[in-house]
UniProtKB/TrEMBL annotation:
Its EC number is 5.6.2.3. One of its GO terms (biological process) is telomere maintenance. It comes from Nitzschia inconspicua. Its cofactor is Mg(2+). Residues 135-303 form the DNA helicase Pif1-like DEAD-box helicase domain. This is ATP-dependent DNA helicase. Transmembrane segments: none annotated. Keywords: ATP-binding, DNA damage, DNA recombination, DNA repair, Helicase, Hydrolase, Nucleotide-binding. Belongs to the helicase family. InterPro entries: DNA_helicase_pif1-like_DEAD, PIF1_helicase. It comes from the Eukaryota. GO terms for molecular function: 5'-3' DNA helicase activity; ATP binding; hydrolase activity. Pfam families: PIF1. It catalyses: ATP + H2O = ADP + phosphate + H(+).
C-alpha cells in the first residue's frame, strides 16, 4: 500500500469549501412515517417524579454554600427556555435522588422522592382520572425518560449542562465524579463524539461479557443515550439486559438506574435495522418510559428565524413548492473546487497517473468487512480534511466519523526523505511513501474534545484491514468508472482515516454547521430535512443541485 504525501499549500479554498460539504443521499421525506413516529412517541407520555425536601420545597440545593441551586443554574444556562429548564430539573432530581441513596448521604441530605406529577411539557392531554392513576403507579419510580424535540432545540445542550451541574455538585459534596458518574452515550461513534460521550455498545459491553464493569459503574447515578433515533430495537433490549447485569439488579428495568433517551424520530433511522418506534413487541420502549420531555424552542436558527420556521414546517408537514423555490435560490452549481473530490475527478487523476499506479491496489474500490469504504491510497497535503473510519478511542473523540486535518507523517527511524518515491498525479510531482516506511500519521482533531484554540495533535498507527477489492481488468488503457472489475479478498495495512471531501448526513446529525455545501440529494428516509436542519442560516447553505419539489412536497 502506498501513502502519498502531497504537500500543496495553495488549496485553502478547496479545504474550506469542502469541510462543510455534505454528501446527502436519498429521497423525499415520508410524511406518514414521520407523523406516525411522533404520535407513537407521544403515546409514551406518563408521568415524572421529582424531588422535594421534607418541608415540601422543590429543588433548592445549596451544598456547603458554594453551589447555586438547580433553578439558578438553569436560569443562567437556559435563559428563557422553560422546556429546557424543566427537563434539566427532572434529570438533575433523578440524579441527586440516586446519588444520595447510593452514597448513603440520606442522613445529612434531606432529599427523597415524595411527589409524582404529570409532565408539564406534554402535548398529549389525558383525563384527570388517568393522570391520577399514572401518578400513583409511578410514585417513587426511577426516571426512564425521553428527551425529544426537533433538531436544534437544545437536547445536547441540556445533556451537557446536566453533566456540568453534576460535576459541580459532586465536587461540592466531595463525591468522585468521572465518566461513569453520568454515562453519556450514543449509538454511533460520530454522534458520541459530538456530546463528548462514548458509544452505547462500548460503554455497556455489548460485545463482551460483563466482568470488571461492575466495580467501575458503582458510582453511576444517571445514564444517557443520545441520538436514540439511530438505535436498533434489539440494541436497546440488550442495553436493558447489560445494565441489569452490571448493576446486579435483574428485577427493575435498566437495573433501577435513572436513564434518559434523547433524540428525534423525525431524524435518521439506524442503517439496516428496526428503529425503536417500530418496536411493537418490545416492552423496553413501549412500557418502560415514564417521562416525556419535549423541547419546543429552536435555538440553532436563532440568527435566521425564518429559516428555522421553514424547517419546522418541513419537519411537520413538508415543503410547499414556493418554499422549495426559495431553498433552490441557494444553488451555486458545479463549482470547480468541488469537482476535485468527486469520483470522476478521482478517475481522471488516476488516468493521468496510470503508468505508475496501475499495478497498485490504489485503483481498486476497496470495502472492509463492514462494507465501509477504505482509501488504499491516501492523497495528503498539509491541512487535508480527513475523517476517522474506526472507533479508536471514542471517549478521546477519536471515533468513526470524527473530522481531523492532516499535519504530517512520522517516518520509521531508518527512513528519510531520500527514500521517497516521486510519482506524478494530475501533473504534480508527488512524494510517495509506502506504509511500511511510516510509523504514524499526525492529525489535528477538529471534532469534539478540542480544548480552546489549541491544536489537538494525535498520532494514528496503521491497522491491518481485511477487505474486498474490485480491481479494474485488464490493466491496460485508461481506467474509468465503467471499467470492468474483478473482486478479490485482500488484506493490507492502512491508517484508520479516509479523505473527507464530503461527509454523509448520518455522520453529521446533531451538529450545528454555519456553512454547508450539499453535494447531492438523497430523498430516502428524512435525509433532506436532517441535512437542511444542520445549517444555522439559509445564507450559509450552498447547493450543487436543486431540490426536487415533487419529492419534498406537503401532504
Ligand atoms: N438555551 C439556549 N440558549 C442559547 N443557545 C442554545 C440554547 N440551547 C441550545 N442552544 C444552541 O443551539 C444549538 C443547537 O443545540 P443542540 O445541538 O443541543 O440541539 P439538539 O436538539 O441536540 O439538535 P439535534 O437534534 O440536531 O441533535 C447549539 O449551538 C446550542 O449551543
Amino acid at each position: 500500500m502506498r501513502l502519498s504525501a502531497l504537500f500543496l499549500g495553495a488549496i485553502p479554498m478547496l479545504q474550506q469549501g469542502l469541510m462543510g460539504a455534505v454528501l446527502c443521499t436519498v429521497l423525499a421525506i415520508s410524511q406518514k412515517i414521520q407523523k406516525r413516529r411522533i404520535v407513537n412517541t407521544l403515546h409514551q407520555l406518563q408521568s415524572i417524579c421529582r424531588i422535594v425536601d421534607e418541608n415540601g420545597h422543590i429543588t433548592d440545593i445549596e451544598v456547603n454554600g458554594t453551589l447555586k441551586n438547580i433553578r439558578d443554574f438553569a436560569e443562567i444556562h437556559f435563559s428563557e427556555d422553560v422546556d429546557q429548564k424543566k427537563s434539566f430539573e427532572i434529570m438533575m432530581c433523578a440524579f441527586i435522588d440516586r446519588l444520595y441513596k447510593e452514597s448513603n448521604k440520606s442522613a445529612e441530605g434531606t432529599w427523597k422522592v415524595v411527589e409524582s406529577m404529570e409532565p408539564s411539557v406534554s402535548k398529549k392531554r389525558k383525563s384527570n382520572d388517568e393522570r391520577e392513576k399514572i401518578g400513583k403507579v409511578n410514585y417513587h419510580k426511577q426516571l426512564i425518560g425521553f428527551l425529544s424535540g426537533a433538531g436544534g432545540t437544545g437536547k445536547s445542550h441540556v445533556i451537557k449542562t446536566a453533566c456540568q451541574y453534576a460535576q459541580k455538585l459532586c465536587k461540592a459534596l466531595g463525591v468522585k465524579f468521572d465518566k461513569r458518574t453520568i454515562v453519556v452515550t450514543a449509538p454511533t461513534g460520530a454522534a458520541a463524539v459530538s456530546i463528548n460521550g462514548e458509544t452505547t455498545a462500548g460503554a455497556f459491553a455489548f460485545k463482551r461479557k460483563v466482568k470488571d464493569e461492575q466495580e467501575e459503574f458503582k458510582i453511576t447515578y444517571l445514564v444517557i443515550v443520545d441520538e436514540v433515533s439511530f438505535a436498533f430495537v434489539e440494541d436497546m433490549e440488550l442495553l436493558n439486559e447489560k445494565i441489569k447485569q452490571i448493576f446486579d439488579n435483574p428485577w427493575e428495568p435498566f437495573g433501577g438506574v435513572p436513564i434518559v433517551f434523547s433524540g428525534d424520530f423525525a431524524q435518521l433511522s439506524p442503517v439496516g435495522g428496526r428503529p425503536l418506534y417500530k418496536s411493537e413487541h418490545s416492552i423496553v420502549w413501549k412500557e418502560y418510559l415514564n417521562a416525556f420531555m419535549e423541547l419546543r424552542t429552536n435555538h440553532r436558527f436563532d440568527k435566521d428565524v425564518n429559516w428555522g420556521a421553514m424547517l419546522g414546517r418541513f419537519r411537520d408537514v413538508g415543503l410547499s413548492t414556493k418554499e422549495v423555490a426559495i431553498i433552490n435560490t441557494r444553488v451555486v452549481g458545479n463549482l470547480r473546487f468541488h469537482v476535485r473530490g468527486t469520483r470522476r475527478e478521482y478517475c481522471n487523476m488516476k488516468r493521468k497517473a496510470q503508468d505508475i499506479i496501475y499495478a497498485d491496489v490504489g485503483e481498486a474500490h476497496v470495502e472492509d468487512q463492514c462494507n465501509k469504504r477504505r482509501d488504499p491510497l491516501l492523497k495528503l497535503y498539509y491541512g487535508r480534511p480527513l475523517y476517522i473510519n474506526h472507533n479508536e478511542d471514542v471517549a478521546g473523540c477519536v471515533a468513526n466519523g470524527a473530522i481531523c486535518e492532516f499535519r504530517g507523517v512520522k517516518l520509521k527511524p531508518a527512513v528519510s526523505q531520500k527514500d521517497f518515491e516521486t510519482i506524478i498525479i494530475d501533473g504534480y510531482h508527488v512524494n510517495c511513501v509506502s506504509i511500511t516506511q511510516v510509523d504514524s500519521l499526525l492529525v489535528n482533531m477538529l471534532d469534539g474534545c478540542k480544548g480552546g484554540n489549541k491544536e489537538t495533535i494525535i498520532e494514528l498507527s496503521p491497522k491491518v484491514i481485511y477487505a474486498s477489492a474490485k480491481f479494474p481488468v485488464p490493466f491496460t488503457g485508461p481506467i474509468t468508472k465503467n471499467s470492468m472489475r474483478t473482486r478479490r479478498r485482500i488484506s493490507f495495512e492502512q491508517f484508520p482515516v479516509n479523505c473527507a471531501n464530503a461527509r454523509t448526513v448520518h455522520k453529521l446529525q446533531g451538529r450545528s454547521i454555519h456553512h454547508l455545501v450539499v453535494s447531492a440529494w438523497d430523498y430516502t428516509d428524512n435525509r433532506v430535512y436532517v441535512c437542511l436542519s444542520l445549517c444555522t442560516t439559509m445564507k450559509g447553505l450552498f447547493l450543487r443541485e436543486p431540490l426536487n419539489p415533487s419529492k419534498t412536497k406537503e401532504e
